[in-house]
Amino acid sequence: MREPLTLLTGLGVITVLIVFVLLPIVAVVAYPPFTDYLTLPENGRWVRAALNTGRMVVLSTTTATLVGFIYAVVISRPELRGRKVLRLIATLPLFSPPFTLGFSYLLMYGRFGLISHDVLGFESSILGWKSLWAVQTLTHFPFAALAIERALAATPARLEAAARNLGASGFEVFHTITLPLVRPAIAGAALLIATYVLADFANPLVIGGDFPLLATEAWYRIDGWGDMRGATVLAATLLPPALFFFVAERFWVSRRKYTVISGRGSAFDRLPLPQPLMWTLIAVCLFVAAIILSLYFGIVAGAFTETWGVDWTLTLNQWSVVLSKADHLRNSLLYAATAGLAATMLAMLAAFLVDQRAIPFRRVVDFVCVLPAAVPGVFIGIGYLLFFGRAGIPFAGTATLMVLAFTFANLPFSYQVVRSGLAQIDQNLADAAANLGASRLRILWDVHLRLLLPTCVAAWTATFISCITNLSIAIFLVTSGTQVATFSILGLIGDNRLEAASALTTALLAITLVVLMITWRVSRSTGLVSVVVDA
Amino acid sequence: MKTRRWILCAIATLGMAGVLAGAYTPANAAGKIVIYAAEDEKTLNALTKMFTKNTGIDTEVVRIPAAGTLVARIRAEKDAPKADVFIGGSVEFHEPLAKDGFVVPYDSPAVKLGNIGARFVSPQNYWHGWFMGTLVIIVNPDRFKKEIAPKGLAKPATWDDLLNPAYAKSVASGTPASCGGAYIFTAVQVFRNGGEDKGFEWLKKYDKSVAQYTPTCPGSITLVARGEVIAGITWQDDAVEALMAKQPIEVIFPPETGAEIGGASIIKGGANPEGAKKFVDFLLSKEAQTVKTELGYTYPVRDDVKPPRGVPPLSMIKLVKYDRQFAIDNRTRLTKKWEDEIGSKR
Amino acid sequence: MLESYVELVALHKRFASLAAVSDVNLAVPEGQVTTLLGPSGCGKTTILRLIAGFLQPDSGDIRIKGERVNDIPPQRRGAVVVFQDYALFPHLSVFENVAYGLRRRKVRGPELKGRVESMLTFLGLADQAAKSPLQLSGGQQQRVALARALVVEPDVLLLDEPLSNLDVKLRVRVRTELKEIQRSLGKTTILVTHDQEEALSISDRIAVVEAGHIRQVGTPYEVYARPVDAFVADFLGIANFLPATVLAVTPGSVLLDTPIGRLLAEASGFVAGDAVTVLLRPSAIRLSASSGEAMVRTSVRSTSFLGGFRRYELLLGDFLLIADQPMTGLDAREPELWLSIDPAAGLHVLASRPR
Hints:
A: mainly alpha; 74% helix; globular
C-alpha cells in the first residue's frame, strides 16, 4: 500500500524514538572516557556500592516476592470476605511517591517513631540496610501480589480438583500443580521487582543511612562534587543488570506462561486450605497490611502534628508550607498531565503503526518503545541532562525537558496498554474501513481512537501517576522555576522538617487519589492495576 | 455528533499543548543575567531584588541547593552555556571549573574598595569569595545530658574531645566521597595534625566515634536533631539556620577549624558578561554582604560588615592553617585514600 | 456382580437457597455404565462431585463397594473423574499427565513407565507421550484424560460430559470407542450428560435427573419407551403427547379415546373415565397418501429433509403432531396425508396430561 503520509508518520516516530530514547542512553554510556570504567573496581566505595546494590536486590526481591506470593494466595481465596480490602491496601504503594513508605517508616518506627518509641518504648536507630530492606519489601511486594493473584485466578480450580482426584494430597497439589503453573508469574514479578529495587533511589536517600548504592551514589557524585564522569560510570553500571532483568522477563519468562486449555467446563470451587495454614497466611497478610496502613496513617498524622515525637498537638500549621509550595504541586500536576498526554498520543501512534505493520523496522520499534522500562530513572535523568544540555537545544534546563523525560521514560506503560487494547479490536473493523477506502491514518482516527478511548484514559492515568510520584528523573532536571513536589518533599525531609514533608506528601497523595478516582470512573473496564503490573 | 466531539477534543489538546509550550519557554529579554545559584532561597530573593533595583538588570535564577548539580549542568552545557554567573558553593567547586576553562577571570574593583583579603580571591582572579563559613560541632542536648554528662564530661569543645570513647558510635559527619564539607574536614585534620599520615591516624581514631557518615553535610544536622546520634559535624550556616528554626541542637565553634569560602564566578560564553561582572561587584558590596550575613548566617568577606547573629566574631575563631591549593589539588587522591582506609573498612 | 457397587442413599445438598440435590437414591451396578441424564442445572454434576468427594453432602450416605465414603477425602476415594474439558495439566507432558496419579500412589521406576506406556498404547497415544497436551487435538486430549483416569485403576470411573467439547462427527466416533473401552475393561462407570442420544447409546442404565431429583432409573429402552412422566418422555426425545380419555379397561390394556381416534394400549392401573396422556414418538406414526387402513386425515404444515428421514409437522385441527417418515413412498408436496399408528412401536400411557 502506498501511503506517503503514513510512511512519513512512521519515519517521524522512529526519529523521535532515536532522539529521545536511544541517544540519551548512548550519551550517558559514552560520556566518561572508557578507562573510567576500567578503574571502577579500584574505587573501594563504588565496589561497596555495587555489592550493596546486589545484596539489596537479592534480599528485597526475595522477600517482596515471597510476601507477595502469600498475599496473593490469601486474596485469591474467594471465601474470604475482606480480601477486596486487603487487595486495596496492597495497591496503595503502587500509587504513591517512591519514598512514601521509607519516609513514614522513619516517622512510625524510627527513633522518635510513634510506634517504636511512644508505643513500644524502643530507642534505637533504624537507619541502615535492614530498614531499607523492610521498606523495599513493603514498597514492592504489591507487584508480586497482584501479578501472582492474577496467575492464580487464571489457574482453573478444576486442575487442582483433578490432581486431588488422582490422589494428590493438599501439599502435593500445591507442589505439583499450582506452583508450577504460577511459577512464570512469580519469576516475572521477581524480575520486575529486581528492576525497581535496582533503580530505586528515593527510599535509600531517606532511610538508607550510609549504605552506598549505585543509584544513590550516582546522584551524590553530582550533588556532592559535580562529578559527571563518576555519575555516568555508576549509572552505566546499573544498565547491564537492568537490561538483563528486562530481557529475561520479556523473552524468557513471558514465553513460558501457560495458556490453560479452556473449555466449557463448569466452574469449580477452590478446595479449602487446611485451617492452620490458612490462618497463618492470613496472619502474615494482616500483619503486612497493618504495617502499610500504619505507614499511611503516619504520613497523614504527621501533616497535622506540631513537632513529631515531641509535641503531639493537633495543628494546621504545616499546611502553610503546602500553600507556600503550591506552585510545586501545580508544576507536578501540570508536568505529569502533559507527559501523560504526550506519552499516550505517541504510544497510540507507535502502537497503531506497529500493530498495522505500517512502519519500517517494526520489531525494533516495538523493542525501543518498551526499552525505557529497563532503564533506571537515574540513568534517564542524567541522560537527558547530558544529551540535551550539551547539544544547545533551546528547551534545555526548562520544564519541557522534564516533561519530555517523563514522557519517554513512561512510554512503555502507555505503549503496552495501547497495544493490548489494539489487539482486542477486531481486525475486521479496520479491514472494513480499508475496504471502504480509508487510509491507515484515517482508520486510526475513525476506528481505533474511538474504541480505544478507555484504554487511552488508563494509559494516561498510569503515566500521570508515575510522573507525579517520580523523583529519580526529576531530581536531575529540576530548576528553581520548575520544582516539583516530590523534590521539595525530599528537601523537607533532608531539612528534618518531617511534619511539613508529611503535609506535602498528603497533598500529593490526595491529588493522585482524586485523579485516580475520576479516571477510574471513565475507564472502569481497563484495569489500572494491570497497567502498572504489566508494564 | 460524535465526530464533532472528537475534533473539539483534538483542538483542545493542541491548544493545551500550545499553552504549555508557551508556558515552558523562558523569555530571553535583553538587559538580563542568568544566575546559577546554590543558595538559600530567602537570601537569594533579597539579593536579586536589590541588584535589579540598583542596576536595572533583570535576573533569572536557577536555584539548586546542591552546588555539584550546578557544576554538572555547567559542564553539560559546555557548547551552549545558559548561565552568566555561578554563585554559591565553596570555591572547591569553582576551582576545577576554572582549571577546565569554564569560567573567565575578572578583577573586580570591589575587592580593593571593600578591603577584601587575598585569600578570598582566586590567584588568577577566576573566582571571588563572597562569604565564609566554618565547620562546627553540633550536639543534641537531651541525649548529651542523658548519656554523656553523667560520665563527667563537658560539652565537646575541640575536635579531639570527640575521640573520647564516651562518644563511641554516636557521632555523625559527612562522607568525603560525596560531601564537600566532609572533605574539608578531612583536610583540616591533615593540616592540624601535621601531615597526611598523622591526619589519617586521627581520622581512624575518630572513625570509632562515628555512627554514620552521611552522604550530605546537612544530613548530620537531621541525625543530631532527631537524636539518632549525640553529636555531629556540619557547616555553621546550616547549623545556625537549623538552630533558628528551633531544631533541638546546640552549636559549638571548635578551635583549629576549617572554613569554606563561598565562590562567585563568571561563566565563559554567557550571554551577558558585563551584567555578570556587575553582579559580582554587587555581591562584594557592603549592602549585599550585610544581607547575606544576616539571612545566611555566614561570615562576610568585608571588614565593615558585622558577623551574623548567634555566631562569635571571626576574630575569636581560630582557623587551622589551611593550604587550599593543596587541598584542591589532592582531592581525588585523599578522598580515595579515605575510602580505602576508612570508608570501606566499616 | 454387585448390584449396588456405588450406592447413594437419601443424598441431600443445598447451595444457599437452592436445593441442588434432594433425596437422591441410586444403586450403580458393577461393571456397567450408569448415566445421570438431565438438563443443565439439574444437579447431575453436583451428584458426580459428591461421589468424587469435591463436595460434602448435607445429609445422606455415599457408599462405594458397600463402604461409606462420606468422610474419605477425594484423593483416597478410588473414584476418578474425567473432566468435561479434561483438566489436563498444561505444564506436564502427556506421559507425565498420565503418570500423575501413579506417582501420587508412589509407583516408581519401570513399573510406572510400563503402566503408563501400556495405557497410552491401549488408547492409541503411544506416539504422543512426549508432547504437551496443548499440542493435541480435542479427541486426543480426551483420550489422555481417559488414560490418566484409567491408569490408576479406580473403583469407579466418573465421566463429566466427556464428549461435549468434541465436534459432532468426532463425538459419535469417540462415543463408540468409549463404550468399547469400558466394555473391555469392565470398569464401573458413572456418566453425566445432558445429551439423550449419548446417554441412550452408551449406557446400561440411565437415571433421569430433574431439579435435584431422580425421576426415573432404567435401561435406555425403558426410559425411552416407558417414561414415568412427561418430563422424562420429553427429555429423551421428541414426543407427541395426545390427550386421551380411558373408555374401557381390560386386564393389561386400556381402550382410549384420542384426537386421532380410538386406540388400544397396553397399560394397567387406570379406570374408565381417567384423563390420561398418550406418548407417541414421531417414528411411531405412519403416513400415507391414500386412506387405506389409516384412521384420520391431517394437513401438512411443513416438512423438512433430515437426511435419513423426513420430518412432518402435521395439523389435526389445531393440534400439532410431529412424525418422522422414511424417504421412500411419499410426495413431499402432498398437502394432506392419512395418519395411522405403527402397532409395533406401541403406545405408552401416562397418568396425567403434560404440563
